[in-house]
Amino acid sequence: LAVGGHCERVAVLDMETSQVRASAEAPGGTSILKSGRFLSCGGLNGEIVLRDPSSLSKLFTLPAHNGPITGLDAKMDLLVTCGISTFRNEYATDTSLKVFDLRMAPRPLSAIPFPIGAQLIKYSPKFSS
């Protein structure tokens, strides 16, 4: 079980023993966690930090939004995020979804315009890439 939050730490708990298996600093906090090939951590600073799921070492950092990440989901080699943007010190829901290719060295792909903004995101179980 991966946990994070405003405490500026991310941890992996062993559910059988109720012990912390690994822990690492997460400056600025972590708003969202997602497991898979990477432990994808959506930061309150708008960055995605991809970590090793067992050691929690930081492998990659990807800029996504200029405010907090509010949602992320991954399917196969695609990671999609939604978040908050700031403009003239005002917060607003970002009107684009950010898409990242996680094959080899992770990299951003074209953003998907979503004019009404999104706070949460989830792949459809029927989606195939």
TrEMBL record:
Pinpoint the PAN2-PAN3 deadenylation complex catalytic subunit PAN2 N-terminal domain residues. 2-127
Q: Per its UniProt entry, which superkingdom is the organism in?
A: Eukaryota
Q: Which InterPro entries match?
A: PAN2-PAN3_catalytic_subunit, PAN2_N, WD40/YVTN_repeat-like_dom_sf, WD40_repeat_dom_sf
The record, for SUPFAM superfamilies, names: WD40 repeat-like
- GO annotation, cellular component aspect: P-body; PAN complex
Q: Name one GO biological process term.
A: nuclear-transcribed mRNA poly(A) tail shortening
- What's an example of a GO molecular-function annotation for this chain? poly(A)-specific ribonuclease activity
Which segments of the protein form a coiled coil according to its record?
none
Q: What is this protein called?
A: PAN2-PAN3 deadenylation complex catalytic subunit PAN2 N-terminal domain-containing protein
